[in-house]
Amino acid sequence: MAEFDLLRKTELRIEGVALQNANLNEIAATVADMLGMQRDSILVTDVQGKTLTIDVLEESVDAYDILGKKDGLLQKLSKLPGVSITENASICSEGMLGWIALDSRKAGPALRRSASIAEEIRQRLTKRAIVFSTGFEVASGQIKDANTPTIRQRLEAEGYSVTPGPTLSDDELLITASLRQAADDGYGLVITTGGVGAEVKDRTIEAVLALDPEAATPYICKYQQGTGRHLKDGVRIAVGQAFDSLIVALPGPNDEVKSGLNVLVKGLASGSSKDVLARDIARALRKRLQVKMKRHGQGVVSNVDRS
After folding, report:
1. What is the CATH code for 127-295?
2. DSSP label of 216
3. Which tens digit of pLDDT belongs to each residue from 167-210?
């Protein structure tokens, strides 16, 4: 499989075709079937003289599904009622759809090289990480950022290229914008630390959800809402997706970052989904918190699922 982004070049022009009471739905269906696409993803948008314009309502295509399909498609179209194909008929596109007109025997090796290069680029992007610490205390220099060096050292040992991002204040819009920019810049892994607590100033989880409303946000512990400074009902972590970037929001304490990072690294290596990653990280952090609270003779108000 060689999936390529069409980069908004979705127009396919068939030149040298004459129509007489032809059914445009049948033409669209024939094109879709020939190119291995869903029928509702192909639309005939224009007929001018002997030029038929097709629009592909897809963001990407498997190049092997379209490579060298020109002659076969023209032959299929010629059998439709009301469709006549001239001897010099051609199919062209300004983008990746132009693969349809290439000789598959000659273009095949080039396509395989392109697919290999694309996979290599994807792997490199997956291994690019950026780390943001959050919180007024860190941003103002009151406390030292120990988390970014910890994460950087561990990830670099796993083959990642790690960029320390700027420390972010407790501002939901700022955090959201920074995460979105990191995703736009091609970082495959984006990690934040801090801002996941139950106080009103803690806005990292909300920022991740603003980018990915379906992000997994399991609780580490729950509180009685409104008790003390706990204006929210608990402490959560988050694992979400923005474009091709995985976003992971960890707590601020360095020992918790280390525990969550251990689970994250193992999950990334095994290809775990964001839901599984979030579940496993939260489970490890809950166990650590329980041990810590038991050691100090305290309890945690919690009805969190222990699974």
Report:
1. 3.40.980.10
2. B
3. 999 999 999 999 999 999 989 999 999 999 888 899 999 999 99
